[in-house]
Amino acid sequence: MTTTLIAPQRFSPSASDESLPLLLKPFTGEVMNRPPVWFMRQAGRYMEEYRAIRSKVSFLELCKNPELSAEVSLQPWQAFHTDAVIMFCDILIPPEAMGMALDFTDHGPVFANPLRSAAQVDALRVPDPQESMPFVMDLIRRLRCELAGSPETALIGFAGAPWTLACYMIEGGTSKNFRHIKAWMYEDPASLHRLLDKLADTVIVYLNAQIAAGAQMVQLFDTWGGLLDEHGYRTFIMPYQKKVLDGLNRTQAPAVLYMNNGAHVLSAVLETTPDGLSVDDRTSLISLRSLANDSGQTGLVLQGNLDPIAMLSRPEVLKPLVQANLKTGGNTNYIFNVGHGLIPQTPPDNVKRVVEWIRSGELTTG
Ligand code: CP3
């Protein structure tokens, strides 16, 4: 019997490729004068331009209208000159396409009929993204057209990771104690695994469709990926992060895993071998870098990890915090970002300042 080993695809651009947007240069390992900079939730309520559009349409209407969502995606790039545009959408759009009624209220997302039985899991479909979410691929194509004259700017696509999506689908929305998904995990792990596997299949075809439409990097958001201990992480979270990462067309676009609150499981997280790892501010980039080096992943791109709440500080307080963060990132294999999304109270002028400090070389890595 012959066994065929299929090596997972990795993004390996050539450093001599002049056409590479700045965001992708860290993946070549070249030493850089300054890191690329973008912000999670860089489009949103802290921007007046965003609120003006949102006053006319609901959040879901905005997500499904490519003309408006393209405008909103471009707002922070136009206002602050970030090195990347992230498509404007939400991680909960695919669960809606799988068959779950979704609404966004003042208290966040709500699934009217949360998953509470194995029969509901089995009734969910793995949607064809072109058929059920065509507005996302339409948005990506529009944004690439809009950015055609600015090849130094990259376009980012994204999806939620299976575990985080399952948290919202089972809890029905944001949760304090995750009692429904945890009860399910203890009582009927087999059907929870079926759900996570279906979600992984959904996310793989969805992200590959985004890459085919023109996304130049994709980010897999595991906001609740740090919820369990290491055994739980290795059982319910990591296998599905890895399945998604291994299923992506990564020779075309690097895949970045965003792991929130995962400082206690980092060695296991590294075993998922993403092209880039984005972490929140509770993880030190210096210790993460040495862990990655020790595990043989010397070229791993690290992304992060300024506390988004630091972004609310006076400029004279903020500047040394950004400087300190850049020092931990280093001059290669590093993308500057916040450790979690910008919050609505963020002063837009601070976003502008941080981009200017980094772009001008006034603050340096090291
Ligand atoms: O980063 C960007 O600029 C792109 C857009 C983006 C949004 N959501 C827009 C949004 C991205 C990448 C997301 C991802 C997302 N959505 C995550 C993972 C990242 C994270 O923040 O942890 C999660 C967990 C969600 C689910 C979600 N969407 C929640 C819990 C909420 C409510 C909380 C909140 O901030 O209001 C949303 C709504 C949402 N998604 C808004 C935006 C701009 C606010 C909606 C509004 O305009 O009323």
Question: Your description of this structure?
Answer:
The protein contains 15 helices and nine strands. With 366 residues, it is an alpha/beta fold. The protein has a single domain, classed as TIM Barrel (Alpha-Beta Barrel), CATH 3.20.20. The strands form two sheets. A seven-stranded parallel β-sheet has the order 1-4-5-6-7-8-9. A two-stranded antiparallel sheet has the order 2-3. Helix 3 runs parallel beside helix 7 and helix 9 packs across helix 10. It starts with 47 loop residues before the first helix and ends in a 7-residue tail after the last helix. The mean pLDDT is 96. The protein binds coproporphyrinogen III (CP3).
Topology readout:
Blueprint (H helix, E strand, L loop, with lengths): L47 H7 L4 H6 L1 H15 L3 E3 L6 H6 L3 E4 L2 E4 L6 H6 L5 H4 L1 H13 L7 E7 L1 H10 L7 H9 L1 H25 L3 E6 L7 H18 L7 E5 L6 H5 L5 E4 L5 H10 L6 E6 L8 H15 L4 E5 L9 H12 L7
Parallel strand pairs: 1-4, 4-5, 5-6, 6-7, 7-8, 8-9
Antiparallel strand pairs: 2-3
Helix pairs in contact: 3-7, 8-10, 9-10, 10-11, 14-15
Bound molecules: coproporphyrinogen III.
